[in-house]
Structures
1.
Amino acid sequence: MKISHRVANINGGGSDGWDVFLKARGMIAEGVAVTELTIGEHDIRTAAPILQEMHRSAMGGHTGYAMVPGINTLRDTVAARVQARTGVPTTRDNVIITPGGQAALFAAHSVACDPGDTALYIDPYYATYPGTIRAVSAVPQSVPAHAENAFQPRAADIAQAAEQGAKSLLVNSPNNPTGVVYSRETLDGIAQVCKAHDLWLISDEVYDTQVWTGDHLSPRALPGMADRTLVVGSMSKSHAMTGSRCGWIVGPQDVIANLVNLATNTTYGVPGYIQDAANFALNQGPQVEAEVSEPFRRRREKAMAVLAKQNTVSLVPAQGAMYLMLDIRATGLSGDDFANDLLDTHHIAVMPGESFGQAAAGHIRVAMTIDDDRFIAALETLCDFAAGLAGK
């Protein structure tokens, strides 16, 4: 018996990008002490008051089928939050609650693309992006954002790719893996291309509470973009609720209505007690979100001080998100080789840039997700290791 080509080909016949991560986890399972700097998982857990609300809701009976679009209180809260941050009129009818940001990405591409349509995405990219596009039977096509341009995508490159007949464009700012926050100029250019080539814009904004320099701008707020933009949001990064699987899509009312039909036939909604906890969390205000993001802001500052003391490893402008993208091309190694050698030699696990596309070749991504002292010690070891390879 054969399985469908659609599912068998989700990874495009190659690696899913998680090889070093899986190697590190295998070493840990064998009892090796590995410093884990690969995955974007907070080193704190969901705050006790949020869990208490989740428990209260579950014990109160909110464990049955929840409304497929999401409970109205949470949809209202998300809508109010988005409107306050963007100035774009938003109601619950513009919001569907999803089982995390990943399910939202799948749903957004499902509604934007027919089988065989070309779906654009920016390289470097989060590792699941091309697989998500293949999962809806669309054809992924990357558009490189070059290191020489600080990984800001250029409108001309997107326009050239769109001329082949693309249907959608997926962007992510603040960006995983680079830590770059797209500038107003970049987003204006993206908006112009989307309008000129009639593209759906899928905007992954799950890191919108982790901005270290500059400001986050949602492209949905740009002129003429609200009717063609689908914004993906999540509780995972803003409130350390990664395991709760609660996210959303914000978009035009008719699109959301059609996504409700999709959800009815796929996920059938998100558990009510999870939604109640998410609603409670969002209503605690921006101070709670700042407390969750503060360790990464602090570690970024410490990391910049470490990197300033050497001249082998250079830092891509770390403007947002919980990662550092480091340029290790001075060592003469690829990101893959450097990451594997670092893991074998010093038991420090980082992600190769090549896990996120060829535009990030010769780089590594470091997650700032362990306590300050161990993080800085690991970064210093990494820099010394790189200097030794470079002969400096």
2.
Amino acid sequence: MTEDVSIRVEGGVGRITLTRPSALHALNTPMCAAILTALQGWSGDDAVNLVLIDHQEGTRGFCAGGDIRMLAESGAGDASEARAFFATEYRMNVALDEFPKPVLAIMDGVTMGGGVGLSVHGSHRVATERTLFAMPETGIGLFPDVGGGWFLPRLAGELGTWLALTGDRLKGQDVAAAGVATHFLPSELVPNLMKQIASADFSVGAAEMLNEILRTLTHSIPAGGFEANRAVIDTCFAFDTAEEIVAALEADGGDWALSQVKSLRSKSPETVKVALRQLREGRQLTSFRDNMQMEYRIGWRKVQSHDFQEGVRAVIIDKDNAPSWDPATIEGVPDEMVDKYFAPLGEDELTF
């Protein structure tokens, strides 16, 4: 199907291994299609008791995201290739969320964007000291998709809002402390985990067996490093408009709060507002499928937006890190500019 992902069944375990190290295993459409097909087949296959997602041994990163350059190039034209990618990737996200058996993701290394969507919707998620989590999309004018509207507002307090709007990073144990991962395991013990999984019989009580293996290997999770700023996060990022969030941070006046203002001011103003509404609406939804349909509406339009094209130019192509956002400020983004991203697509809606 594609040389960028290895898919096989070993001893009752469906194995999905990312094998695209030159791009830090970033997802493309054939990879998502292959994974989706495997999940659909394994869902009702009694010979598969557990799914394990990891990346090629000895290579860097778990999954750095999606093929941003392709999205931008497609968005500069008719956007058909970008929209086809979103449709395939989002269906894969839904298949992971609805998979009826345990799904274990080994988030060892960079786990951003699409890599988060490939891992966070599974039942068991292992972070290591090398895990680097982020949803950095506001910095390139995209948006925190792949289910970000669903899982981010369901993190404790306003952690998800902070992470979505600023694109801030979590490392190692903090990924588990925030609830993005369910377990923490030093990377040196990952081979031991793999051996135990390979020798275990998951034919009866797969979830219980996996829980027991992880219980014996994983370490306790200490309080996250972000807890020092938790009160500011939960208070200042609780507002429903970006203007109020910025004002609250400025009123706090502390060094950390003001650093968040600086970060927010550097992001695409339009995208900050789109992402905030995405999370607020996603928090109210009761269906993951409805969330992904909402995100497809946003993505359908966002790839052709000025800020996404400009963000990719500044960060990925020219690398001058000096995007010219339009509008240039959060205060300059009218509500109707945000509204258009959430409007129904009619016959172009994502279906499952």
